[in-house]
Each structure stands twice: as C-alpha cells, then as structure tokens.
Specification:
single chain, alpha+beta, Porin, 8-stranded antiparallel barrel, 5 helices, about 35% strand
Length: about 325
C-alpha cells in the first residue's frame, strides 16, 4: 500500500511538471494587474488653434495628470480604466501676434487678433480603453515580461468640462482679472464623451516597474470646449462675449494698441490714441460678419510619461 501511495504521488508530480512544461504559450501566460501614475502636456485644437497651422501644436501648451488600472488578460490584449485631469487653453492675442511676427506680410490673422478671445478648460476624464501590444507579450511570470513593448489603444472617455476666461484687465491697478465661468455658447450637457486614439511605449525598469510614454488624440463631438461656436455676435451685451475693444490683453497684460492700429489702417477701421481702457469698436454687433467662430468640433491631444507598478502573481503548482 505504501508503494502504491508513493507511486501515485510521483505520477502527480510528473503530471504537474508536465503541465507546466507542455502548456501552450497562451495557457502559460500569467494575467497581471498594474497601476500607473504620471503627467504630461495638453494641446488644444479649435477656433483659436486651427489644425492646419503648425503653431497650433505648440501654442498655449498646458498640462495633464492621470492614473490608470490595467488588467493584462492575454499576451497581446489588455483593458484599462482610469482618470485624467486635462487643462487646455487658447488665446487669440498670443496665437495671432506670434503668427504675424512669423509672417509680417500676412493678414490672415487680422480678424483673430481683433476678436481677442481666450479661455482655459479643466477637463475631467473617466476612461475605458482597450490596448493591443505590438510585440510578443508571452510570459509565465510578470518579471519575465518583455523589456520593451510598443502598443496601440482606443476606447471611450466620459468627461465633464467648464470653459473659463479672465475678466477684463484692470488698467488702473495693472492687475489681471479673476477667472470666471463662461457659457456664451451653451451646450446641452456638461457631460460628454470622446474617443481616445493613441500609441504608447513601455520600457521595463525592473521586475515590478515600467516607464510608459504615450501620445493620445481625443475625437470629440462638441464645438464649445473653447466657448466659441459659429454664429454672429448678439446684441445682449453678454459679459466677455465681445472683447475686441479691450486695449490690454487679459491673459498677458500686454498693450494691443500698436498692432490694433496697424490692422485698423489696413482694414479701414478707426485707430486708437493709445489712452484709456478701450479701443474703438471694430467687429461684432450689428455687423453679421465676421462670425464669432466656425462650425468645426474642438479636440485636444495629450502626451504623458508615467510609472507603472505590477502586482506580482505567484505561480504555484498545487
């Protein structure tokens, strides 16, 4: 009886070792759970930053912070959920002025300079994303994962947002105005969704840590991240709707008079003497054109550098 028991135990051990040795790569894969934390840059496309201008990629760069939980459930596929806080911004004065300096003979940015709108928007995202590894992810232990892995990802983001702008610059005290919520271009809901599309690269640092770099573009379905949509200026005298007469740029505190007079002379508007808080009226009600914005949806993209930690799952042969 004792010999039979020893034989059974020996066969069980051989069977256990055999299973570990002859399992397919898919069966040997060890599912992992990881968490990451990081930060990066945020860039906006919209009525202030058109997509067909290279300066839009580097103008008014802001930031993002994010944290994610990722479940690697197969060698090539994983699922990620996370939260990100993304701040985007744009400024007609900064964008138009710098483009004019780069192209002194161009007048394509005259009307944008006169419009003189700006905004910032803190976007809070909740995401569910699928990830496809582009290199061999087979591994029977977390610590044996590949040293480097490029990947693609896409999914859905639910986000809330509220555009803001600075109140008028106080010339008498030489101080910037406070940030205030703006809703000149109302949306049906502050809760919206977007589709993130991106690529990333993971670099193994040690058995439990990766360094992750990503770039992600958000496809949105709204046109008011910047609070600027297609349509004429109203006659309601809504605060911060038409800022073309402000002599000092609210964001930078720079005097607009010199460039304003150059544009006014070119377009036939009255010029300014450079005194007082206001410039002569140019665009806006009752003129139906130019309209306040265009009818294209706004979008944004982010870069991110994050550190990922893997929760080790031990392999035991029962």
């Amino acid at each position: 009886m004792k010999k039979v028991f020893v034989l059974i135990m020996a066969l069980a051990q051989i069977n256990c070792l055999g299973q570990g040795r002859y399992k397919s790569p898919w069966e040997r894969f060890n599912k992992t759970l990881s968490v990451d934390l990081g930060a990066g840059t945020a860039h906006y496309f919209g009525d202030i930053h058109p997509t067909n201008n290279l300066y839009s990629f580097s103008s008014t760069v802001r930031w993002n912070v994010s944290s994610n939980l990722t479940w690697q459930f197969s060698p090539f596929f994983s699922l990620r959920t996370g939260f990100a806080w993304v701040r985007i911004a744009g400024d007609d004065f900064v964008f138009a002025k710098n483009n004019m300096n780069a192209r002194p003979t161009a007048d394509a940015f005259d009307l944008q300079f006169l419009r003189n709108l700006h905004f910032r928007n803190d976007i809070k995202e909740f995401s569910l994303v699928g990830i496809i590894n582009l290199s061999n992810g087979f591994s029977n232990r977390t610590s044996n994962r590949p040293n480097q892995t490029p990947y693609l990802f896409s999914g859905i983001n639910l986000f809330i947002n509220q555009p803001m702008a600075r109140e008028k610059y106080n010339v008498s005290t030489s101080s910037k105005g406070d940030w205030t919520n703006i809703n000149i271009s109302p949306s049906n809901s502050k809760l919206n969704f977007s589709i993130p599309i991106g690529l990333g690269f993971r670099r193994k640092l040690n058995s439990k840590l990766d360094l992750v770099a990503e770039i992600s573009y958000r496809v949105t379905f709204i046109d008011n991240l910047d609070d600027i949509i297609k349509g004429p200026y109203s006659n309601a005298n809504t605060a911060l709707e038409n800022r073309s007469t402000e002599r000092v740029a609210a964001q930078t505190g720079q005097d607009r008079t010199l460039t304003f007079n150059e544009i006014s002379n070119r377009l036939g508007f009255p010029s300014s003497s450079g005194t007082g808080p206001n410039l002569p009226p140019t665009i806006g009600f009752p003129n139906p054109f130019p309209e306040r914005g265009n009818d294209k949806n706004d979008s944004y993209w982010t870069t991110s550098l994050r550190v990922r930690y893997y929760f080790e799952k031990k392999i035991k042969c029962k």
